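Troubleshooting entry. Yesterday's outputs looked truncated, so today I'm pasting the complete records for two proteins to confirm everything comes through intact. If either block looks cut off, that's the bug. Protein one:
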Amino acid sequence: MSKHKSEAFTCPHCQNESSREIVESINVDLSPEMREKVRDLSCFAWTCPVCGKASLVIDPCLYHDMSNQFMVWLSPDGSPLDASGFDPLAGYTLRWVESPNAFREKIDVLERGLDDRAIELMKLILAMQLQKSMDIVDLVFHSFDERTGAFRFVVVLSDGAEQYAAMQGDTYARIARDVEERLFTPARDFVKVDIDWATAALELLKGSE
């Protein structure tokens, strides 16, 4: 199930105060309909009952996927979640992110059973290759082609344009193996695995060669 609560909220458009329902946690095994609402971020959408205008309001939210054994904590203010009370969740992957786009990307990666650490390192390596000819703002995991074994990423450019770039599956396999064998990632803490993590991890991997 999903955990909700209500609170007063001032509409950013008309400045009227109304009640707003906040989604504090989501368990997609118990509330499977929430999976799509996370993908399109409609779980954070709010429509003012006075002026009728819609707003995207991002609140802290814990996403729980029991089948795939992972949790992702969305923390807009950058506060990590204390995992000390999660002892029964041995074997879980625990991650935290700060933005809604990173939230749904991380969930997509983990839902596919992929190692998000390897994916972030692939994004970093791809960015380093492409930035010689492109002004890159962001790289986002898009899909995995089971037929070709290619991993596809969306390259977001500074002018707002988007392009696709790909890396082969053997690259992922090699990086995933190196991460598993040569890097330590705390298993009982919510860890922020992003571009900064990948930058530090790449230096560690280079240093251990």
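Protein two, checking that the full record survives here as well:
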Amino acid sequence: MKRKVKYIIHLDKIDELSLQEKVELKQVTDKFAFRTNDYYNSLINWDDPNDPIRRIVIPTTEELDVWGKLDASNESKYTKVHGLEHKYPDTALLLVTDVCGIYCRFCFRKRLFMNDNDEVARDVSQGLEYIRNHPEINNVLLTGGDPLVLATFKLEKILKALAEVPHVRIVRIGSKMLAVNPFRVLDDPDLLRLFEWFNSLEGKQLYLMNHFNHPRELTEEAKEAVRQVAGTGTIMTNQTPILKGINDETDTLHTLLEELSYIGATPYYVFQCRPTAGNKTYSTRIEDTIDLVERVRSRMSGLGARVRYVMSHETGKIEILGKTDTMIFFRYHRAADPENSGRFMVYRRNPEAHWFDDYTHLIEDYKVETQEEYV
């Protein structure tokens, strides 16, 4: 039988919250949108006020602390047409929906869920035309919001349009749906057939970029959804920010990455939590997180240990490489400005830093031309 998941957008509908909590948290949901569902709520230990799944989806008054900004990576700078961003030459990003299965409290695009947002294009024709006219684009990321919120027939229209563009070889779907409502896959054979069809096309490949943030999200239903999607020929990966009180402990992060490796959703990136408005309570210090990531890597095989620790900065994707007693090392993994491509950067350490901009004392900044030069 199909499992009908009930979505919840009002705190009043959550019986596990006290009346006082509902009153206190209303000021948070008045500012930042709220959405969960009964399946995901069932993963919460409601007796634990610091439960990590609760921290992912249930608001806290700490979100009202003044910190960061809504568009922390200045994504609007790279918007070329309505609903499309083009930051790196070979990659286009299509914002196809402004709805998710749940609204993670640490979301870096929470601005999309506000009433005055107009960044998402429900009609993606302009974005598709832009992609057709830019042959350097060989891969497209469908995001939002969560593309798997879309009805399968709507997603099919987008995938078929992209399949007709000869230079588009890869389509990536960024989604947390398998973590928050695996029945979206388990109860929709048409979705699996759509994925299988796309992967059957010569020279085309579909990737599902999952967002599992905590091991407890890896339920039997979620694992089965991963297996079924993988069975369509879709390549499965996972990316997660490092989140204070959720996955910033060695055993927790190790278990998450190991379990993902076991089920074939290869760990891809671990992100520094962006300094988005409302996210202070989730942000970790970079120099502590370096140690966390390295401890976890040291306990994993090469498949899991290849995960990269990065920041999605306005200027590009910056990999956080390591530190000494006095210095910290970064490299542009992807750069918006070609002049920064591969640039290696050394800064004086700042133990309180939460973002790249917190490092202000540049010691040495050069572009690595060869491996020999680096050595």
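Both blocks look complete. Sanity check on protein two: The chain has a mean pLDDT of 94.
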